[in-house]
Design goal:
globular; mainly alpha; 218 residues
């Protein structure tokens, strides 16, 4: 009887021991899974850092991009902006560019200024005459805006400033024929007066502009 009891006791101890080992063995894969998941999460974080570089876009370019994506702005103006030259259309449509130049919408004025400027490329006939008149009016009444845009606007070049000078010069030659030299001096004094107290960078733009105007005079 004692032997039988010992056998039963031994079997009981073995069963208990096997159960503990089984539980211990089952816990190992769980910890392994947690480690794998953690590694995967780290890889995902690293991947997002590598594939999403930080980009910088100037406020002026953002303003222009918003105008280009604005469904209420006619595609005609957007095409001129993209092609950087006048696009032939109905007379009223083309002349509307000169009207947009004087917009009161502060979120779109830079866009329309660039559109007007680029429309000078290829301008002729009645549109060229309208451009010359509007350019002279703008530079003498919105001198600060003119100087500011040529100081900070993306996409404007020295060639664009030359175009402005040539059209303003053309307006002077038409309206002040025979008195161009004096008219140009009056223009220079007017622009300098309008810039009184403004940033020095603006004066640099105007001096370059006046120099280009003078270079087109006889």
């Amino acid at each position: 009887m004692r032997i039988k009891s010992n056998i039963i006791l031994g079997l009981t101890i073995m069963l208990i021991s096997c159960g503990q080992n089984a539980n211990k063995n089952e816990a190992i894969p769980i910890d392994s899974i947690k480690v794998v998941d953690k590694n995967i999460d780290n890889k995902m974080i690293d991947s997002s850092i590598d594939t999403h570089p930080i980009t910088n876009t100037s406020p002026n370019q953002i303003e222009i991009n918003e105008a280009l994506s604005d469904p209420e702005i006619d595609d005609y103006y957007k095409e001129i902006y993209k092609k950087k030259e006048i696009i032939a259309a109905e007379d009223s449509k083309m002349l509307s560019i000169t009207e947009k130049l004087f917009t009161d919408n502060s979120s779109q004025d830079l866009f329309y200024f660039i559109v007007f400027t680029k429309s000078m490329n290829g301008a002729d006939g009645f549109y060229a005459e309208a451009v010359a008149e509007s350019a002279y009016k703008y530079v003498t009444t919105k001198t600060i805006e003119f100087a500011d845009y040529f100081n900070i606007a993306p996409g404007l070049t020295d060639e664009d400033l030359t175009n402005w000078a040539e059209f303003v010069s053309g307006e002077i030659k038409i309206t002040k024929e025979g008195n161009e030299e004096n008219a140009t001096k009056i223009l220079e004094n007017k622009l300098r007066e309008n810039l009184a107290g403004s940033r020095k960078e603006y004066l640099v733009v105007i001096e370059q502009f006046i120099e280009k105007v003078n270079s087109t005079m006889p």
